[in-house]
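Troubleshooting log. The previous run stalled partway through. Resubmitting the same four chains, unchanged.
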Amino acid sequence: MDGRKFKDTIYTGLSKLLKALSNPYRLEIIEMLSQGEKSVEGIVQTTGLSFANASQHLQVMKNSNILKSRKEGHYVYYSLVNNELLYLYQHITKYAINEIAELGKILNQQREDNKSGDAVSLAELKEMIYNNNILLLDVRPPIEYKSGHISGAISIPMNELLEHLKDIPREKEIIAYCRGPFCVLADEAVKLLNEKGYKVRRLDEGYPEWKIKQVEII
Amino acid sequence: MDGRKFKDTIYTGLSKLLKALSNPYRLEIIEMLSQGEKSVEGIVQTTGLSFANASQHLQVMKNSNILKSRKEGHYVYYSLVNNELLYLYQHITKYAINEIAELGKILNQQREDNKSGDAVSLAELKEMIYNNNILLLDVRPPIEYKSGHISGAISIPMNELLEHLKDIPREKEIIAYCRGPFCVLADEAVKLLNEKGYKVRRLDEGYPEWKIKQVEII
DNA sequence: CGCTTATTCAATAAATTTATTGAATATGTT
DNA sequence: AACATATTCAATAAATTTATTGAATAAGCG
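Second attempt completed without errors. Output:
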């Protein structure tokens, strides 16, 4: 193969992967699937896409080495191909937030609006977790908590938080987390708990970032 | 800003960056600019794009936080916005080569066809470089060597290699490198030097990968 | 077997991206 | 000032991606 043809083939292949990642719905699907595998129905419910449109997006992602699937009865479950893909996705999002001023500003504004501007980093959490006065709170839906969660976290889904306030000790400092840096469930939890007088901060990132750190692929 | 709007804004912003990266010519432009800044003319010559088409691609990249530019007389010079972008580009390419079987196969085939299958990694180079029997050869164009090169490398552009054979000691092992893992200049140099009876291998990566390792951003 | 349901496939419409063409702008030279 | 040159801008054409629609397929149930 001559050099020109080789480069064209390589760059076309790279471009195929990047195109498949370039759609906003698909990026959100990656965030969702980084919590654990999901059926098309689950993806449809969260994204608001039509069944056929979601399926089309999923096929594009599957044909571009982003997702894999398995079938069980009526249902097809999708998941990310591997942890390396998740780590790459995290690198992209972290780069964008840190280096693209507009995006960093939007995230900061969102955090401030919800009183979660003093988010805790994973490194900080690692130190804090030995403190008995810390309560780590997973506010994702139960099915996601069951797929995987940060060690030691308790599960109270955001939409049940109000009913479970009595289960939360007032003297503890709460660290709330959810799906990742753009997940608003933890922001909402911080806002609500703040209003109720609890001492609470959100985790800057989410379960998937913690997971990758545990896997220690680097 | 409500949660839905926030996520839409974030993912739209991420998608804009990824779309701007998703074109094969643009990926090659990034490889070129990772050697150092270049004028539009230089980009036109290497890519074969028309002036106006190249300019349009460059504007898209500039408006998506990938490139920056400066003007000097008639000429406009483009460069990557920062080392972090280059590091992200490298992560993407490394991921694709390692995890997408088709692409890995194409690269391996290219290496074998040019007798450069036993490429030297940067880590290996670091150990080898203290050996006086090693000659590090930069086969990129001189302007790129001048913009930046691996410490200790000598410059012989690939298209002048035949005329400079007499400058290369026969008892040394040569490590040839160029613009990155997809650059074929080093492959061509290995092929030629092999045929002339020299002991030669190529560096797996290129100057930009070396540079990022030096900067030690991680 | 007939009916129901989850998902994919195929075709078409709509939206977006990329290539092309030519004019406009900025800079340099005589 | 006129002319030349590098690049960008604007408009249009062509190519590609995404949304929509409805049929097809696979699996489950009575």
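Takeaways: Residues 123 and 174 of chain B are 16 Å apart (CA to CA). The mean pLDDT of chain B is 94.
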